[in-house]
Amino acid sequence: MSMRKYMNPHSARVFGDRVWVIPFVASLIIFITLFFSGISGLFTSPHGGEQLPFDIISFSKSDDSNEYFVESDLKRSLETNGRSEIGAPRLAYLISGTKGDSHRMMRTLSAVYHPRNQYILHLDLEAPPRERLELASSVKADPTFSEVENVRVMAQSNLVTYKGPTMIACTLQAISILLKESSEWDWFINLSASDYPLMTQDDLLHAFSNLSRNLNFIELMQITGWKLNQRAKPIIIDPGLYLSKKSDLAWTTQRRSLPTSFKLFTGSAWVMLSRSFLEYCIWGWDNLPRTILMYYTNFVSSPEGYFHTVICNNEEFRHTAVSHDLHYIAWDSPPKQHPISLSMKDFDKMVKSNAPFARKFARDDPVLDKIDKELLGRKSRFAPGAWCIGNPEGGADPCSVRGNDSVFRPGPGAVRFQELLQTLLSEDFQKKQCT
To answer: TM spans, by residue (predicted)?
Structure first.
């Protein structure tokens, strides 16, 4: 009796009423209809069978696995998303500088500018706010940059420590911005304010038009000998990660053992990397780039090892590495910490190197004017190309009027660079990659 007393008199209706049967059956019919409609192709895209946006990352079965994974489809979608090797290539540049470098950065930008390319400028946190504001204002005030909208100044200034991982962090941030802002570039090139081109962009773009878009120009070698002890084993701290003023690396007394899951490589910090490889570095679908990035946070001269170690420890990309940084750089003998500042006496050597870039140059060195005049043909803001169709009479800027930016007018620089590429892509040279 007591149980009956406290029983809810309406509870029996849950099982008594069959009102729920109708919506359940209707839902079941709709589900079955949708399922078989999807299989039969009812929901294919109206645009010639292209995938719908939600189908970019699909859980399809991997060819080499019995399980279902998203990584392989993510990788394929990134490799084919809006890019083709047919047509003229596009480049993406990072030009970086520090206190007092804003004018040098603008000069380098003007010398390598082409409307097909993308450009991002980073003036680090050591530069005063006024200088960073002047740099942004100079870019905004330029009529060509405003019209084409392919030059950006990083709003977030990072503190970059020489030889520290903060330089890699800044580079990866710039790459992420370029990937987000534009899907139309094929290679990434990093330059500093002390770099300068030795040929026009028409020369460079023409030469790269016939190359595989998967090639990566990155000088590298396996790290051995004294470099292992002085760079890999010490534990260092980059003050740029937590301080607001630049200072040298902090060294600890502890030492660490060498990694066993990957081999260490080193080389030049100046690179020309393919978009496909950089998408792998950012997305890292097998986690190798992130693992190596964490390792290099305690590595001396990490900019000279991070990309090198990632590419040589990945079977897909290691065969795309071409061991050259595309720069002419002069060193003392024996080499010191920094390269020699180039001047007039180095001009012939720079040209004979057939390299498209050189470093480092002192601010406003007269050799830069000689490069402008004899190698770039630069008489106004930009090094001219086929895209400049304005009337140059009376000293007018021919690049103030833009033509077809997919047409190039290669000059002697293209011939020199083709000679270098023939050497770099020869069978004997390729055997030396990642070894």
So the answer is: 20-43
**pLDDT digit string (tens) for the chain, length 435 residues:** 444 444 444 444 444 445 545 555 555 555 555 444 444 443 333 333 333 333 333 323 344 444 444 444 444 444 444 444 568 999 999 999 999 999 999 999 999 999 999 999 999 999 999 999 999 999 999 999 999 999 999 988 888 887 778 899 999 999 999 999 887 899 999 999 999 999 999 999 999 998 999 999 999 999 887 778 787 888 877 777 776 777 777 777 788 888 899 999 999 999 999 999 999 999 988 999 999 999 998 888 889 999 999 999 999 999 999 999 999 999 987 777 789 999 999 999 999 999 999 999 999 999 999 999 999 999 888 999 999 999 888 778 899 999 999 999 999 999 999 999 999 998 777 777 787
Is residue 327 within a helix (H) or strand (E), and if so which, with residue range? Answer: strand 327-328
Residue 275: which of 117, 112, 92 has the closest Cα? 92
Q: Which of 174, 172, 181 is nearest to 282 (CA)?
A: 172
- Helix (H), strand (E), coil (C) string for 78-143: HHHCCCCCCCCCCEEEEEEECCCCHHHHHHHHHHCCCCCCEEEEEECCCCCHHHHHHHHHHHHHCH
Q: Tell me, what amino acid is at 175? A: I
Nearest CA to 116 among 149, 82, 85? 149
Burial classification of residue 255, based on how many CB atoms lie within 10 Å of its CB (0-12 exposed, 13-18 middle, 19 or more buried): exposed
Q: Which residue has tokens 């500088």?
A: 97
Q: How far is residue 53's CA from residue 203's CA, in Å, rounded to a whole number? A: 38
Phi then psi for residue 137, to 5 deg, are -70, -35
Contact at 8 Å (CB) between 389 and 401? yes
